[in-house]
Amino acid sequence: MRLIRVYQCLCDPTRLRILHLLLGGPLCVCHLQAGLGEPQVKISKHLFYLKKHGMVQMRKVGNWHVYRLPARQTEELKANLRCLQECAAKDRQFRSDMAKLKKLRQCGSARQPMCAPATEKTRLVA
User: Fold this and answer.
1) Which domains, ranges and CATH numbers included, belong to the chain?
2) 65 neighbors 58 (Cβ within 8 angstroms)
3) Predicted confidence (pLDDT) per residue in 61-112, tens digit
4) For residue 104, how many other CB atoms are within 10 A of its CB?
5) If we measure between CA atoms, which residue out of 98, 87, 110 comes closest to residue 26?
6) Predicted model pTM
7) Any bridge partners for residue 58, and if so which?
8) Fewer Cβ in 10 A, N or C end of the chain?
């Protein structure tokens, strides 16, 4: 059943693009929105779906919701994320998303989510 849940999450292009960007580290909703060029409501809907199925985790950092891939991943998820990473390297849309994100990251710190101040306490919401 875990495999079915993984594939249900991976069957949508926007969710694949979100997961691909999260392979690079934690991101807040606003940066996923900017990186994908999609409306906030659409990104939030897909993040909710991914979180509900254990594919991402969210933490509150001040006013921001920062998403990341789970710290502990099932073997099925690990294998599919590796495949996504390999396939995305050859796809124009995924490369474009990553290039946009790279430009956004240049304004932030490599160790902190881009819009979250380092002094804020964080709370993981699984």
Assistant:
1) 2-125 (1.10.10.10)
2) yes
3) 888 899 999 999 888 889 999 999 999 999 999 999 999 888 877 765 444 5
4) 17
5) 110
6) 0.81
7) 67, 125
8) N
How long a stretch of residues is the chain? 126
d(CA 118, CA 123): 13
Express each pLDDT in 11-65 by its tens digit: 999 999 999 999 999 999 989 998 899 999 999 999 999 999 999 999 998 888 9
Residue 56, token pair as written in the block = 């991402």
